[in-house]
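User: Can you recover a sequence for this backbone? Please restate the input before giving your answer.

Assistant: Of course. Working from this structure:
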């Protein structure tokens, strides 16, 4: 049975799995682990983004891409991406794995187990998924406070302090190209890409 309170720890050099750890502890310690992100555009090329719920243990009320989470130990990234997209936004559809990206960033925390000035550390290998979605979404209020669709320039107008670090990174690295990436994935002509490593601190 999958344990959704844990994450898979991985070796920073090889990306090989080296163990498991409680999700909160992994973020307290800044240990490198597996993650997923789903990026969605509509037919007009606008990003579907979410404002994280107040009750999230880090980055509450900040704006982020459509969905981001962690595979449980033993769960594949594509299954985790579909599961979390359904759980957070009530969306089901064909996802395309278009690349991988690694980053490290300090993030604000609301956890009772972390002091106010300590924060948490995201240190993740992110499998990136994308899709086109023109339908409605049904956000889970425990996960998502609000959703909206914005073009690239509009998304960049959100003040950086109101965005999660990883969302700002995505906008910089491939946000403008996301509609083309989705179109190429849908057509079967996209080549999986490694977007490299980023230290955001």
């Amino acid at each position: 049975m999958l344990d959704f309170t844990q994450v898979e720890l991985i070796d920073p050099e090889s990306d090989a799995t080296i163990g498991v750890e409680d999700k909160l502890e992994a973020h307290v310690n800044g240990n490198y682990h597996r993650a997923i992100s789903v990026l969605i555009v509509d037919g007009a090329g606008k990003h579907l983004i979410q404002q994280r719920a107040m009750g999230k243990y880090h980055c509450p009320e900040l704006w982020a891409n459509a969905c981001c989470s962690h595979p449980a130990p033993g769960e594949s990234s594509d299954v985790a991406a579909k599961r979390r997209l359904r759980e957070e936004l009530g969306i089901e559809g064909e996802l395309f794995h278009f690349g991988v990206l690694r980053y490290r960033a300090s993030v604000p925390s609301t956890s009772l187990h972390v002091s106010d000035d300590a924060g948490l550390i995201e240190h993740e290998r992110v499998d990136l998924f994308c899709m086109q979605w023109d339908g409605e979404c049904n956000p889970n209020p425990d996960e998502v406070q609000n959703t909206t669709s914005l073009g690239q320039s509009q998304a960049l107008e959100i003040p950086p302090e109101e965005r999660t670090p990883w969302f700002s990174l995505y906008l910089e690295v491939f946000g403008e190209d996301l509609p083309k990436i989705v179109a190429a994935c849908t057509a079967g002509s996209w080549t999986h890409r490694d977007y490299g490593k980023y230290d955001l601190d």
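That completes the design. The longest strand covers residues 120-132.
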